[in-house]
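[Meeting: bench + compute handoff]

Bench side (C.D.) handed over the final construct sequence. Compute side (W.E.) agreed to return the predicted structure before the next meeting so the bench team could plan truncations. Sequence as handed over:
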Amino acid sequence: MPSQLEQLQLLSPVVADTARFGRLSAFAPHAASLGMARVLEALDDPVCAPLLAQTVATHRGQPPDALLDRLLVRFGCELLGVVPGWVSTELDARSSFDTAAIVARAQRIASLYESEGLPPDRLRVRIPATWEGLQAAKALGHHGVHTHLACVFAPCQAVAAGEAGVPLLSAGADVAAGVWRYFRKFGVDTEVMADGLNDVAQALALSGCDLIALDLDLLAQLQASQAPLARALDPDAALHCDAKASSYNEPSFRYALNDDAVASERLASGVRAAAADAQRLEQRIRAL
């Protein structure tokens, strides 16, 4: 009997939410999601820790923000040596409300990956789903940079991402299924990745989603179980869901997000946490 992880992979390609590239081969994920917090965790792993000193030594003299991007790309390249798909690389969240800064930073990250011989389709640049992030993602798409909108907690963020032609968004367990059904019903091409899952039950309840991001603990739990797994999200049923088509411009987006107090605070909290992680990584870089 195949493991639950193998069964899930047949329904929803699994994305490993980790920077610990040395532990991935046992799980055979399709892709990987690389965030600042995961890099900070990986620096306590003896296999991964040397990458920080190596990156700083090789590029000493460059400003901390450039070294931060190079460190992320170094981890991303290691992950791409394991996964057959793409790696989503988190952008410094301190740029979350500056469209031009997001575009410039994302293009720099894309150029660094290109200099390592990696084609654009193996990269996703992860950007918080602020209005500025959405506009940057749209512009980056015109320049051939694939983006990943994160921190999607409200319907307006998902709809606006679809309208902007963003290739990928990640949504929390309580939001992902509704966004997936809406996109299936109205033929939106944006892929939905369920993210931030707390337990195996949430993963099973989202089987059939376009992608599911799982940390190492959840990957191990699913691999250890051989319990049968059935599709939870039905494409045919999604076509008949009660979702209504909607559209957003900047004023209506900002109002809708502001009107959803829970989603608005979760987005703000996500940006604050990611910005703090970027600052901590820069401090580690400055210390060398």
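W.E. noted at the follow-up: The chain has one domain: 4-286. C.D. will use this when planning the next construct.
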